[in-house]
Amino acid sequence: MMARKFFVAAVIVVSLIAIFLSGSSILAGKQYEIAFIVKSLTNPFWIDMKAGAESAAKDLNVKLQTMAPVKADNVEEQIRMIEDLIQRKIDAIVLAPADTKGIIPGIEKANQAGVPVVIVNTKAAGGKIVSFVGAENFDAATMIAERVVEKLNGKGKVVILEGVPAAQTAIDRKNGFLSVLKKYSGIEILASQTANFQRAEGMMVMENLLQRFPHIDAVLCANDEMALGALEAIDAAGRLKEMIVTGFDANRDAVVAVRDGRLFLTCDQNSAAQGSEGVRAAVRYLNGESVPARIVTKVILVDKTNVDSYLKKYGIK
After folding, report:
1. Disulfide-capable partner of 271 in 48, 143, 247, 290 (CB 3.0 to 4.6 Å)?
2. How many C-beta atoms surround the C-beta of residue 314 within 10 A?
3. 124 and 148 within one domain
4. Of 188, 189, 187, 191, nearest to 205 (Cα)?
5. DSSP helix/strand/coil, 96
6. The pairing of beta strand 300-302 with beta strand 266-268
7. Are residues 235 and 252 in the same domain?
8. What is the rounded distance in angstroms from the CA atom of residue 289 to the CA atom of residue 281?
């Protein structure tokens, strides 16, 4: 009787250990080495994504190497990184492409070398991938634009600051904005220009727009960094009360700007989850498990009504 109880207990322990290790590289009998390539490590969005990827790697006993171009959003550098990783016999690559079409040769080289690729945040237009992990950028942009139109009561002069032209995230967000704004005859789109997802460029582009247009009601920005740069220009011109500004990413500075009433709203696309799920998808694939072709992360609009939870997240009082 005693021996039977011991046997049952042993089975339970072994089962629990198997459940705990499921999806990790431990079960494979080796520690996987995975590369995580983002577009930049100066933008807070990518830094948050890196933290999510590192957290998953720690959970799964993965050796993770995070890489980014020296020049932000440089696809040629990303391709050179992929080539180097192939030579080093990396187990898998998790990648946020700087250029949706331009990255294809790099992915195809990984395909030829038998290195699995998981794409995060920004879609690739070609090559074979394990999965795409990211938010529905078009839908999120329509949510933002609808809120802006509602705030303006269906009438107003609007400008758009676009992201990197060749990045699918920028394309989807711009198209999402336009799909809503063009439905309203009272909305006039004064200009739509790129500021390449950069704060400094956002400020410079906005300075020029302020000189061109004596009145602007709203500025829709495809990310927070451009929105924060635009706010600097608008503030310097003494025109903060004239217009509302929106961002996208819910980074720390943007959340503070929402709290202070400078930024109308931003959008949380959960960058940390994108990094985490990208690494987890790569490990599942390496373990021979089934991986969905698309893993969608939830988006949440952040405004005065819910900004407190984000202030708490960043440890801001």
Report:
1. 48
2. 13
3. no
4. 191
5. coil
6. antiparallel
7. yes
8. 9
Structural contact between residues 48 and 251, judged by C-beta atoms closer than 8 angstroms:
yes
Q: Write the CATH number for 69.
A: 3.40.50.2300
Residue 291 identity (one-letter amino acid): V
Q: Indicate if 151 and 126 belong to the same structural domain.
A: no
Cα 267 to the center of its chain, rounded Å? 11
Task: Answer whether residue 240 is part of any domain.
Answer: yes
Verify that 88 and 228 share a domain, yes or no: no
Across the chain, which has 317 residues, the per-10-residue mean pLDDT values are 44 41 56 98 96 98 98 97 98 98 98 98 98 97 98 98 97 98 98 98 98 98 98 98 98 98 98 98 98 97 98 94
Give pLDDT, residue 9. 43
Alpha carbons 217 and 204: distance in angstroms, whole number: 19
Domain limits for position 188: 137-268+304-313
- Residue type present at position 252: R
Burial label, 131 (beta-carbon count in 10 A; 0-12, 13-18, 19+): buried
Same domain, 55 and 114: yes
Total residues found in the chain within this entry: 317
In a domain, 248, yes or no: yes
| Residue found by looking up tokens 């050179």 in the block | 80
Q: In the chain, how many domains are there?
A: 2
